[in-house]
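help with this:

***
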Amino acid sequence: MAVHVVEDDPGVSDSLAILLEHLGFEVVCHPNAEDLFRSAPPSAKDIVFVDLILPGISGAELIRWLTGLKDPPRIVAMSGQSQNTIDLQLRGIGEMNIIRKPLSHGAITQQLAAIRS
């Protein structure tokens, strides 16, 4: 199982990767959706953290693509935007795990526990 982090802010990406590696996960970081598309698709056992605001293809569009895979991975959307903006971006996707920025250790571990159970 791998955890993919799709985040364009290197500081956020690095910090999240360090925390996830410390928790025992294999982490693959992608600066944008296009970079993730160039690699093998995540498996159903994988977890993908997706920033909703990405350059190029948006995080919401990436999430739509991921949920459309035959065996979609578990997904956590990340955003510092208002709840109304998040709801508009994710409209039609269904139930989604969302973590708010700024990220905290507690919020991340809580999300991981929820999606792994």
The longest strand covers residues 74-79. Strands lie at 2-6, 26-30, 47-51, 74-79, 97-100. Residues 50 and 77 are 5 Å apart (CA to CA).
